[in-house]
């Protein structure tokens, strides 16, 4: 059964990818949108080289950099200068991902940044750290930083109200049939560790949670655009918006074997449902709420995810 779904599903999505490639991305269809980072290896403060502007866009998108914050000059917001603010952002990224905090784009940092990942920002407003719940920390005293591995909440700790622990979900038109069972299993997994229950409704317009496949700029604002194959894989919005989108340009499969080039529909659903319930990214690599995932990887909930959801809802 699963094998059949796997092949039908891959076939369907391959068809849509090919169609898209023919219409839009004929040159660079297989190149990751994060590929530019490869050429920045070794860069540090003071460098001026093509691609640094893209690094700034990347770090802005994921919450590490904001030239518009009061008190900062925006002179270098859109150029290729590796300035102080960019160095600070790189250090914050390195701290969150347990890398050496050097401010230099060493090979470990670029390879971490190039991994396919969730489109939801790691940190919001530049002052909070991933993995510190809603408290937040800043970078003062980097040298003696005591690192605690931890789940996080989304900005402002949004939650579903206790009157709404039974949620309905529906699929947007065009969702491949084979994706519905793995998504249902992901909901069941969250039910097993929370007070939430989820039920499918045919009419997605009345559902609390709306799930679908979308590509490129799909109506969630330009900075939430998907980016073709690789790069960002999916995203979901905090309570109580209920929006969860897969990037239709990725290769998706039901139960892909290890080594497969396809991403696991159910594993990515588990992660995005975490956002729908109010969890942010965790700095624990084994947690489902870790920001990146390799193709052909199957993951379940980790103790860190369960502690996070229990803390958010006081279960
Ligand atoms: C970065 O700057 C250093 C000097 O500080 C220089 O040696 C290096 O070639 C520069 N790298 C790039 C990619 O421009
Ligand atoms: C910064 O501000 C400018 C002008 O106010 C705006 O066009 C730009 O989108 C802002 N950038 C971010 C990342 O908020
Ligand atoms: C940190 O730096 C040390 C010493 O240079 C190196 O051995 C280690 O591999 C680095 N770790 C990471 C995660 O980059
Ligand atoms: C960022 O912080 C400001 C005030 O510090 C707040 O008004 C704003 O809502 C925050 N942004 C988000 C996305 O939470
Ligand atoms: Zn995420
Ligand atoms: Zn979207």
Automatic annotation (TrEMBL):
Coiled coil: none
InterPro entries xref list: M10A_MMP (IPR033739), MetalloPept_cat_dom_sf (IPR024079), Pept_M10_metallopeptidase (IPR001818), Pept_M10A (IPR021190), Peptidase_Metallo (IPR006026), Peptidoglycan-bd-like (IPR002477), PGBD-like_sf (IPR036365)
Chain positions of motif Cysteine switch: 116-148
Topology term for the membrane: Lipid-anchor; GPI-anchor
Binding site for Ca(2+) 3: 227-228, 247, 250
GO cellular component, one term: side of membrane
Binding note for cofactor: Binds 2 Zn(2+) ions per subunit.
Pfam families found in the cross-reference section: Peptidase_M10, PG_binding_1
Binding site for Zn(2+) 2: 118, 271, 275, 281, 289
UniProt main location, coarse: membrane
Residue stretches making up the Peptidase metallopeptidase domain: 156-315
Gene3D superfamilies documented for this protein: Collagenase (Catalytic Domain)
Family named by the database record: Belongs to the peptidase M10A family. Matrix metalloproteinases (MMPs) subfamily.
Protein name as it appears in the record: Peptidase metallopeptidase domain-containing protein
Taxonomic source organism: Eucalyptus globulus (Tasmanian blue gum)
Taxonomic classification: Eukaryota, Viridiplantae, Streptophyta, Embryophyta, Tracheophyta
């Amino acid at each position: 059964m699963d094998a059949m779904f796997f092949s039908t599903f891959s076939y369907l999505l391959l068809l849509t990818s090919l169609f898209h490639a023919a219409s839009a991305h004929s040159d660079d269809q297989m190149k990751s949108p994060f590929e530019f980072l490869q050429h920045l290896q070794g860069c540090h403060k003071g460098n001026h080289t093509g691609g640094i502007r893209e690094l700034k866009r990347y770090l802005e998108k994921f919450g590490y950099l904001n030239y518009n914050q009061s008190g900062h000059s925006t002179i270098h917001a859109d150029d290729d200068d590796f300035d102080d603010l960019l160095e600070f952002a790189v250090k914050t990224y390195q701290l969150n991902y347990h890398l050496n905090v050097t401010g230099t784009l060493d090979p470990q940092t670029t390879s971490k940044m190039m991994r396919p990942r969730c489109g939801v920002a790691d940190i919001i407003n530049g002052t909070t750290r991933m993995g510190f719940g809603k408290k937040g920390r800043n970078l003062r005293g980097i040298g003696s930083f005591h690192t605690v591995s931890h789940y996080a909440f989304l900005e402002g700790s949004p939650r579903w109200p206790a009157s709404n622990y039974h949620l309905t979900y529906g699929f947007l038109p065009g969702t491949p049939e084979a994706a519905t069972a793995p998504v249902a299993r992901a909901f069941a997994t969250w039910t097993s560790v929370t007070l939430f229950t989820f039920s499918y409704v045919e009419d997605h317009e009345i559902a609390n949670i709306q799930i679908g496949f979308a590509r490129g700029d799909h109506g969630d604002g330009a900075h939430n655009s998907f980016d073709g194959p690789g790069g960002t894989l999916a995203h979901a919005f905090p309570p109580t918006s209920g929006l969860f989108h897969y990037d239709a340009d990725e290769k998706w499969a039901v139960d892909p074997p290890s080594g497969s080039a396809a991403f696991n529909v159910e594993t990515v659903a588990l992660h995005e449902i975490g956002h729908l319930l109010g969890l942010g990214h965790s700095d624990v690599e084994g947690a489902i709420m870790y920001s990146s995932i390799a193709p052909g990887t199957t993951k379940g909930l980790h103790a860190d995810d369960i502690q996070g959801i229990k803390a958010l809802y006081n279960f």
